[in-house]
Amino acid sequence: MLKFEKLDIIRRKIRQDDMKDLGVPTHDMIKRCIDEGKLDLAKELVSYTIAESKGLHDLYVDWTSDMLDKVAKKWGEEAMYQLLRDTQGTWMMKRSWKGFIKMNIYERLWLNAEVFRAHRCGPKQMGELDFTEDNEKIIMSCNPCGSGGRTRRGDPVDKTPSRYGAPYNFGKTSQAYPWSWSEKGVPYYCIHCAINETLMIEWGGWPLWVTEYVEDPGKPCAWVFYKRPETMPEKYWTRLGFKKPDKFE
């Protein structure tokens, strides 16, 4: 039997079902509640599907940040960069890029929006995003993004501080590198976005999207999808150590 009640030790509701139902996915429980006419409970469980994934999601982001910090401290920032590049440049980003390059801009946008909603963006960490479009580009804004943005700002939901101060003290670039958008003080975790752009330029001459990283963690970051590479400002190449091509195939 479903038993969705507050657990005082964690200060929120959690499923405390009997053993028969405890392993039933929450989305199946939502369907069951709808079928039984328990619509208010179904609505509660919709929000809970986000809450129940938060702990694992945030743990992996923090764990990754901590590991990158320890690699940089032990072997240097260049080694940390190389670790990210070697993993992103093989199965992870290359597989994604091969798919994205076949899509039009809206298909790329829809798929990345799905990823970012799952990434728990927004001030309530429920997947909120903002979009603006003009003749040249579409901007997907995260306030904040649910991974690097949350670690930079701190977590208002869990009431924990920024991961770049005590007690975490995760690392940031000590100097400006091409792989940190030529900026100093970029969190190691956020660098993977710059490496994504680098790899796409190397593979296809232009990045299918670019990151508007903002130094102030209180302001939104964004991914920008340009409709044609010709209209992209040259800064998106030069900040990574490249020159914008004269022509695009």
Can you offer a commentary on this structure?
The protein is an alpha+beta fold and 249 residues long. The protein folds into two domains: 4-37, no CATH class; 57-238, Muramoyl-pentapeptide Carboxypeptidase, domain 2 (2-Layer Sandwich). Helices cover 44% and strands 11% of the residues. It is built from seven helices and six strands; from the N terminus they run E-E-H-H-H-H-E-E-H-H-E-E-H. It has helices at residues 26-35, 39-75, 77-100, 105-118, 148-153, 191-204, 235-238, and strands at 4-7, 12-15, 130-133, 137-142, 210-212, 221-226. The strands form two sheets. The chain has a four-stranded antiparallel sheet with strand order 3-4-6-5. A two-stranded antiparallel ribbon has the order 1-2. Helix 1 packs antiparallel against helix 2 and helix 3 (77-100) packs across helix 6. It starts with a strand and ends in an 11-residue tail after the last helix. The model has no long low-confidence stretch (mean pLDDT 96).
Question: What is the secondary structure topology, with strand pairs?
Answer:
Elements: E1 4-7, E2 12-15, H1 26-35, H2 39-75, H3 77-100, H4 105-118, E3 130-133, E4 137-142, H5 148-153, H6 191-204, E5 210-212, E6 221-226, H7 235-238
Antiparallel strand pairs: 1-2, 3-4, 4-6, 5-6
Number of beta strands: 6
**Helix fraction bin:** 40-55%
- Structural class assignment: alpha+beta
Question: Rg from C-alpha positions?
Answer: 21 Å
Distance between the termini: 60 Å
Separate helix tally: 7
Shape: globular
How large is the share of residues in beta strands?
5-15%
CATH class of the largest domain: Alpha Beta
